[in-house]
Specification:
Length: about 230
C-alpha cells in the first residue's frame, strides 16, 4: 500500500514539474502590418519642360499588402531636399491638378500610407521646369547626388569619387563647383570649373563630410543641396 501511495505521489510531482511537456497550444501572434509599396511617378516626367503652369500630377496606384485603404502624400518643392515646399497634399486619388508659378524649376515626389498609418518610402524625385516668359536661357537643374548617397556610412576607404548629375534644358555645356566641410566647419570650395560630373577626394576615418555641387552654364547657376556621408 505504501508503495502504491509513493508511486502516485511521484507521478503527481512529475506532472507538475516545469520540465514536463506543455501540450497546450500557444496562440499565434498576428503578422505585423506592412506598409504599402512605393508609388512610381508618371507625370511630370523627369527633366520635363512644361509649357503651361496648370499640371495634373500622376503616379501609380498601389495595393496595400493587407488591402487597407491607401492615401498618397505629394510634395512639390523648388529644391531637391524639399526644404522649400510649395505644395504638400494628402489625397485619396493617384492624380492631383496643381497650378504653379511660371519660370521656376520644381522637384516632386510622393509616398503611400495605409489606414494604419504605415508609410512607404518616398518615391524617386522628378525635376521639371514650368516655362515662363520668353527667355534666352534656362537655369540648370539642381545637381542630383549619385554617390555617396546622403547619410551613407563608408568603410575601409582612403579616397572617394564624388559623383553627381544634372540636366540643362538648353543643352548648354555645364561646369561645376564643389564645396565641402568636415564636422561643423565652414564650407570650403575644393574644386571649380569642373567639366566632368565627378571629383575624387582623400578622406580620413571617423569623419563626417558635408558637400554640395553648384552647376553653371554660360549665363546662370543653380546652387546645390547639402549632402552628407560618414567614414568609419
Amino acid at each position: 500500500m505504501r508503495i502504491l501511495i509513493g508511486l502516485a505521489i511521484l507521478i503527481f510531482l512529475a506532472s507538475c514539474s516545469p520540465d514536463s511537456p506543455d501540450n497546450s497550444e500557444k496562440p499565434e501572434e498576428p503578422a505585423a502590418n506592412a506598409a504599402p509599396p512605393v508609388p512610381e511617378l508618371i507625370y511630370p516626367t523627369d527633366n520635363l519642360l512644361c509649357i503651361g503652369a496648370e499640371l495634373t500630377f500622376k503616379w501609380s496606384e498601389v495595393t496595400d499588402p493587407e488591402e487597407d485603404a491607401v492615401t498618397y502624400t505629394i510634395e512639390v518643392a523648388t529644391d531637391r531636399s524639399f526644404t522649400n515646399l510649395v505644395e504638400s497634399r494628402t489625397v485619396n486619388a493617384h492624380t492631383l491638378p496643381l497650378t504653379l508659378e511660371k519660370g521656376i524649376a520644381y522637384y516632386w515626389r510622393t509616398r503611400a500610407q495605409d489606414s494604419n498609418d504605415h508609410q512607404s518610402s518616398y518615391s524617386k524625385t522628378n525635376a521639371f521646369y514650368v516655362e515662363g516668359d520668353a527667355t534666352a536661357n534656362y537655369v540648370p537643374f539642381t545637381a542630383k547626388c549619385i554617390y555617396p548617397l546622403p547619410h551613407t556610412l563608408i568603410k575601409d576607404v582612403q579616397e572617394i569619387k564624388l559623383d553627381w548629375e544634372t540636366v540643362d534644358l538648353d543643352g548648354d555645356e555645364l561646369t561645376y563647383t564643389v564645396y565641402m566641410r568636415t564636422g561643423s566647419n565652414t564650407m570650403t570650395r575644393i574644386a571649380e570649373n569642373l567639366t566632368a560630373s565627378e571629383y575624387t577626394i582623400q578622406v580620413a576615418p571617423g569623419t563626417t563630410y558635408t558637400w554640395r555641387v553648384d552647376s553653371a552654364d554660360e549665363f546662370s547657376e543653380s546652387v546645390g543641396d547639402f549632402w552628407q556621408f560618414t567614414t568609419e
